[in-house]
Amino acid sequence: xxxxxxxxxxxxxxxxxxxxxxxxxxxxxxxxxxxxxxxxxxxxxxxxxxxxxxxxxxxxxxxxxxxxxxxxxxxxxxxxxxxxxxxxxxxxxxxxxxxxxxxxxxxxxxxxxxxxxxxxxxxxxxxxxxxxxxxxxxxxxxxxxxxxxxxxxxxxxxxxxxxxxxxxxxxxxxxxxxxxxxxxxxxxxxxxxxxxxxxxxxxxxxxxxxxxxxxxxxxxxxxxxxxxxxxxxxxxxxxxxxxxxxxxxxxxxxxxxxxxxxxxxxxxxxxxxxxxxxxxxxxxxxxxxxxxxxxxxxxxxxxxxxxxxxxxxxxxxxxxxxxxxxxxxxxxxxxxxxxxxxxxxxxxxxxxxxxxxxxxxxxxxxxxxxxxxxxxxxxxxxxxxxxxxxxxxxxxxxxxxxxxxxxxxxxxxxxxxxxxxxxxxxxxxxxxxxxxxxxxxxxxxxxxxxxxxxxxxxxxxxxxxxxxxxxxxxxxxxxxxxxxxxxxxx
Length: 490
Ligand code: FUL
What we know:
alpha/beta, binds beta-L-fucopyranose, 2 domains, 23% helix, 19 strands, seven-stranded antiparallel β-sheet, single chain, 24% strand, Jelly Rolls, TIM Barrel
């Protein structure tokens, strides 16, 4: 036992040296050292979800506002055909893996019958005050096999004590209800928005809080972790710690997108950090990937005036490329209407988008083709180039330690027209690649058809209908030996 623990103590040191070593790999030492930081199990699961849906629904849906002031009467919340099953079955059909619901937005109206406030569905006309949106959505998620997540706005324009310590207790009490009564929660979303003015129990004034200290997030997050030890909750905020905001609401992750960032000086709502959030940093000290949140409509909430402005399938497809296709997860907002249903236009757009995705990515032309590389780790079959086309994320092509460049080539068997090149790094071992290019064999020579920087969990490069029989991916720079799970061509 003693020897084992001695060995375990040495393990990190061993990893450190072998990780930073520039010497080449020896035959008996082929294990690839993780390049820290690496994702937690929950973060890895989150990456693999790729598509999550956001649901914005509250009194705003009935007042036509985006940010309710906090003085709305609960009576106005009265969806006539509320059907969470319709929402979740459509979301499932088009490929979403999880749903995050605005359980309370900035106006403070609470979508479940909370013990701690009289400003909730319990005081509304909806289902005679007996309804519970959180329960309906979490149950529909369980029924359809989607994960359930919560958005609970820290800013509360209704609460009389917003700005005082007692409000933090109120916020934590609400979290306790959400994390105790509705089954597992995969992600908790707390955003940094705070416009200052509000109803605040009748005070109708502007209140400033110190965004860095007021909420005392570390204590709140520890409390949540205790409420739900497993599965781990992913905490979203500008600064993580689970996932970070991408810095814009247009659906665009950075062309360069590191999952790593140094969070020490970041906090939710901090000004001037949007570009950093979009790109992350190569030498960041924590794994906090960017989540791309964007709405299918101009607003986050339903407005009849925006029925004709629902993003088209083509626009959604572009957003998919600039989010999932840049190594992020897409959180697409689809706001239910006043009936309590996803609107026909939104549903039609989602279905059209799914068709485009299926059409674009249905036939991987590298599947079972011959692949070769200029080198592979220890010339051992475990790291052979064929691992990138076996449709198994757990297997990969890798080079020797100290070798941070390499080319891998797929022969498609006959000339094909290609539109997309899809690459995946094996991120449990860290994000490594910082520069790569893609060549196509044309007129008896290699022509560069795409160049980019990071790969991460998934990188999709559109190439403009290139006709070729052979495709070559060149890793031109990496922070450590590249570890590539997938090279696919469509
Ligand atoms: C922002 C909020 O102010 C918006 O209303 C919306 O909820 C968006 C997702 O986050 O911070």
